[in-house]
Specification:
Layout: E1 5-8, H1 12-23, E2 28-31, H2 36-41, E3 47-48, H3 50-58, H4 63-68, E4 70-72, E5 75-78, E6 83-86, H5 88-92, E7 96-98, H6 101-111, E8 118-120, E9 124-129, E10 137-142, E11 145-150, E12 153-156, E13 174-189, E14 199-203, E15 206-212, E16 218-225, H7 235-246, H8 248-253, E17 259-273, E18 276-277, E19 280-282, E20 288-289, H9 297-318, H10 323-349, H11 357-372, H12 374-384
Parallel strand pairs: 1-2, 1-12, 2-8, 5-14, 12-19
Antiparallel strand pairs: 3-7, 4-7, 5-6, 9-10, 10-11, 13-16, 13-17, 14-15, 15-16, 17-20, 18-19
Bound molecules: 8-demethyl-8-dimethylamino-flavin-adenine-dinucleotide and P-hydroxybenzoic acid.
P-hydroxybenzoic acid binds at residues 45-47, 198, 211, 219, 292-293, 295.
């Protein structure tokens, strides 16, 4: 098979890119290792920045998002005693929308056939070849038969564990990494949220986050040491811990219920640079990971895809050969700012085992400063709603 762009990975990055390219009349094929149901079964992001909402609107795929997404005009930082509200709408004029990654992916997946976007699920042994040439190709197996797709470009949207990034020689790239000494234990339950806005809490027993997916479905997290296993956390234990860490006001609003999903995700900051090598471009988690504290992962995947679609469109439709080499620097400028914000909010809101009294005093002082300074709140708000693309 021959196409213009071979996309590896049908997560939000791969599907969004596929739709943006198809909308410009550019040929592409998406290869996904898993089944569609498996991809939809992964419970991940919940908060969309305006840029992500705008991309869905540009594609005309935002009907359900508009009907079911919850517009959030603020969120809260809790410090054990009080709630510090960050009025994101008042401070920036923008908002974020609670609409699960699962739903974004479902909307993109459902619209693919009608828009001529071919997605091949259960593609095994995907491998990239000749990425330094102008004629790269991808091989994979389908039902035990080896197949080949020739393309002008390959875009790796295959997440942190996919093969694309690994196809780039170490001598041509650099990795930046910070691993955190805890993970987030998440619980999803069909109960109303404890508040209509998110709460990020720094309590002496650790971090907690109250989030949601709808008026009837809640998503909560607590941080746990990396040595913890899910078997140690009964639903009751999680609800008890949330009630303590989120503080009395939020606790009063918590409705308990059986978990419908429960998992532990380690926290990591990671950047791979550059995000292009020859005819291979990387987008989303394939190139970078942020700790979930800033709600940036999915939104960064969306901004990468926006820049990649722009560069590929310039190449194919205007014959502009400078656009592709410019992709990495453009994407990375936004990635690094989101990495900084996610790292700083993680540091502010978690108790690190290695921290002593000085580090804790710095957290107290910073939270106090945020509570009393419109300038500090504005800085947090403009990063949370997403920096411009
Ligand atoms: P994905 O979603 O990992 O998709 C990659 C796809 O590539 C496929 N793949 C392969 N396909 C073919 N051949 C291979 N060999 C392949 N290897 C892998 C995979 O099966 C998969 O379908 O990456 P993408 O598209 O870059 O999207 C990134 C986002 O998923 C991620 O950044 C977010 O989920 C991060 N994240 C959050 N982001 C936000 O913006 N807001 C949030 O509120 C938020 N909360 C979160 C999060 C991530 C979490 N976890 C579990 C990591 C909360 C959590 C708990
Ligand atoms: C979520 O709802 O899953 C969520 C919300 C905000 C975050 C991370 C995750 O910062």
């Amino acid at each position: 098979m021959r196409t213009q762009v071979a996309i590896i990975g049908a997560g939000p990055a791969g599907l969004l890119l596929g739709h943006l390219l198809r909308a410009e009349g550019i040929d592409c094929v998406v290869l996904e290792r898993q089944t569609g149901d498996y991809v939809l079964g992964r419970i991940r992001a919940g908060v969309l920045e305006q840029i992500t909402v705008d991309l869905m609107a540009r594609l005309g795929l935002d009907q359900r998002l508009k009907a079911e997404g919850l517009v959030e005009n603020g969120f809260n930082l809790a410090d054990g005693e009080r709630l510090i509200r960050i009025d994101i709408k008042g401070l920036t004029g923008k908002n974020v929308v609670v609409y699960g990654q699962t739903e974004v992916t479902r909307d993109l997946m459902d619209a693919a056939p009608a828009r001529g976007l071919e997605v091949i699920y259960q593609a095994g042994d995907v491998a990239l070849h000749d990425i330094e040439s102008d004629a790269p190709y991808v091989t994979y197996t389908s039902d035990g038969v080896e197949k080949r797709i020739d393309a002008r470009f390959i875009v790796g949207c295959d997440g942190y564990h996919g093969p694309s990034r690994k196809a780039i020689p170490a001598s041509a790239s650099q990795e930046f990494e910070r691993v955190y000494p805890f993970g987030w234990l998440g619980i999803l339950a069909d109960v109303p949220p404890c508040m209509n806005e998110l709460i990020y809490a720094n309590h002496e027993r650790g971090f907690a986050l109250a989030s949601m997916r709808s008026h009837t479905r809640s998503r909560y997290y607590v941080d746990v040491p990396l040595t913890e296993t899910i078997e140690n956390w009964s639903d009751d234990r999680i609800w008890d811990e949330l009630a303590i860490r989120l503080g009395p006001d939020a606790a009063a609003g918590i409705t308990r219920g059986p978990s419908i999903e429960k998992s532990i995700a380690p926290l990591r900051s990671y950047v791979f640079a550059p995000m292009r090598h020859g005819s291979l471009l990387l987008c989303g988690d394939a190139a970078h990971i942020v700790p979930p504290t800033g709600a940036k992962g999915l939104n960064l995947a969306a901004s990468d895809v926006h820049y990649a679609a722009e560069a590929l469109t310039s190449f194919f439709k205007r014959g502009d050969h400078d656009a592709i080499p410019g992709y990495s620097a453009k994407a990375l400028a936004r990635v690094w700012k989101a990495e900084r914000f996610s790292w700083s909010l993680t540091k502010l809101m978690h108790r690190f085992p290695e921290d002593g009294p000085f580090e804790r005093a710095m957290q107290v002082a910073e939270l106090d400063y945020v509570a009393s300074s419109v300038a500090a709140q504005t800085s947090i708000a403009e990063n949370y709603v997403g920096l411009p693309i």
